[in-house]
Amino acid sequence: MSYLPWKDEYSVGISKFDEQHKKLFEYINDLADAISTVAEHAVMKNIVRELIDYTRIHFRDEELNLQTHGFEDYKQHKLEHDQLTKEVVDFALEFCSKPELANKMMGFLKNWITHHILESDMKYKEFLQGKAIYEWE
Description:
Elements: H1 15-36, H2 41-68, H3 74-97, H4 102-120, H5 125-128
């Protein structure tokens, strides 16, 4: 069973973003698996790095579409992305030097992604319905 299974309630109704969210869940579940099997710390650090890199891609795509289509709360959403990115990077840096923080890191990631999707991303769900969805080239 996955540490963090995908649920239909996480769907924002935009296939591009739902697929990206699912990929973020995969990274978190991969990290949980690595921790539970006591994988080498280098393996865990690599998963965290990939998670951060993919998070930046996802945030960039969301921001492009929210700004392009004139989403009223774009600035607030971007601010949340910037803050979340900083928090994840800070936590990852601490985790890289202190592997004993693995369980704390997992709790943080689980709360971070579910809260962001259910609280912040759901605000654009109806707004983006039927609009063209763009991605950076």
